[in-house]
């Protein structure tokens, strides 16, 4: 079963976590993503503090396919173990996202929340 609708991300409660948080929303029943795999995903990302969406494959109308080693550390740690058909929420502190404030990315220094649907892995 694959989610056919974009996720809704509830505003977080309390201070941003300092460690990666991994929460399965739906557990898939397909192949399991392995470290270093290439994954096909739909995702939405919002800033923890503001709740504002900063990126979404749903908004573009098509999933993306990427090798995990090319993605942020929070995804490299948080996607392996997911099964195709699953939906998972990752809360990535700055060190596992785009680095500390001033690191050169517009999202540097920010805790980010992603909801990821795993559509395929190889």
TrEMBL record:
<keyword id="KW-0413">Isomerase</keyword>
<feature type="domain" description="PPIase FKBP-type">
    <location>
        <begin position="36"/>
        <end position="122"/>
    </location>
</feature>
<dbReference type="GO" id="GO:0003755">
    <property type="term" value="F:peptidyl-prolyl cis-trans isomerase activity"/>
</dbReference>
<dbReference type="Pfam" id="PF00254">
    <property type="entry name" value="FKBP_C"/>
</dbReference>
<keyword id="KW-0697">Rotamase</keyword>
<comment type="similarity">
    <text>Belongs to the FKBP-type PPIase family.</text>
</comment>
<dbReference type="InterPro" id="IPR001179">
    <property type="entry name" value="PPIase_FKBP_dom"/>
</dbReference>
<dbReference type="InterPro" id="IPR046357">
    <property type="entry name" value="PPIase_dom_sf"/>
</dbReference>
<protein>
    <recommendedName>
        <fullName>Peptidyl-prolyl cis-trans isomerase</fullName>
        <ecNumber>5.2.1.8</ecNumber>
    </recommendedName>
</protein>
